[in-house]
Design a protein that fits this description.
binds iron/sulfur cluster, globular, alpha+beta, two-stranded antiparallel ribbon, 15% helix, 4 strands
């Protein structure tokens, strides 16, 4: 699902320390900069700088 990145999302992301990116996911191989499940590594931390955010259903804080 594509979510518009608006001021409310940005405010709540900051207030609640929103974690959503591969960089914070247990499946992310940081040394190789890739997803260990074989998906394209997205979204990354800069995703909130774009117009829309698409979350990964397999995100896992671990
Ligand atoms: S499972 Fe999804 S969020 Fe986690 S590293 Fe892979 S693509 Fe990124």
């Amino acid at each position: 699902m594509r979510t518009p990145v608006d001021s409310r999302l940005l405010d709540e992301a900051a207030r609640f320390a929103f974690r959503f990116s591969c960089d914070d996911c247990a499946h992310f191989d940081a040394d190789r900069e890739r997803c260990s499940l074989g998906y394209p590594a997205a979204p990354r931390r800069d995703a909130l700088e774009r117009a829309h955010l698409e979350l990964c259903k397999d995100f896992d804080l671990g």
